[in-house]
Amino acid sequence: MRTVSDKQGTTWICLELPEVPAEQRERAAALGTAHVAIECNSGADRVIALVPPGWDDDMDDARLTQIIREHLASP
Fold first, then answer.
1. What are the tens digits of pLDDT across the range 42-67?
2. What pLDDT, on the 0 to 100 scale, is given for residue 38?
3. pTM higher than the cut 0.85
4. Burial class (CB in 10 A: 0-12, 13-18, 19+), 24
5. Is 74 helix (H, G, I), strand (E, B) or coil?
6. Which letter, b or e, does each residue of 50-69 get, where b requires 16 or more Cβ atoms within 10 Å of its Cβ?
7. Do 36 and 55 form a contact (C-beta atoms < 8 A)?
8. What single string gives the DSSP state of each residue in 3-62?
9. Does the chain have fewer CB atoms within 10 Å around its N or its C terminus?
10. What whole-number distance in Å separates Cα of residue 70 and Cα of residue 50?
């Protein structure tokens, strides 16, 4: 689990899901490398993203918030 705040002051709580959701499995397979699914929730918004294993230790706050914002912007 990770908690991160973005530039807008929104606090996000991110948790690794036990498996990649069915609707994202095809995309995960196309990435060609191992990925896990995380859910990030701000209370008002929710994002499910695919990230490399070890994201909670290896990814810095700037990259994690960038991933969250990219998923919010995509339909």
1. 999 999 999 999 999 999 999 999 99
2. 97
3. yes
4. middle
5. coil
6. bbeeebeeebeeeebbebbe
7. yes
8. EEE-TTS-EEEEEE-SS--GGGHHHHHHH-S--EEEEEE-SS-EEEEEE-TTHHHHS-HH
9. C
10. 12
HSE (CB half, 13 Å, CA atoms) of 53?
5
Cα gap 49→26, rounded to integer Å? 13
Tell me, what amino acid is at 42? S
In angstroms, rounded to a whole number, what is the distance separating the alpha carbons of residues 53 and 50? 9
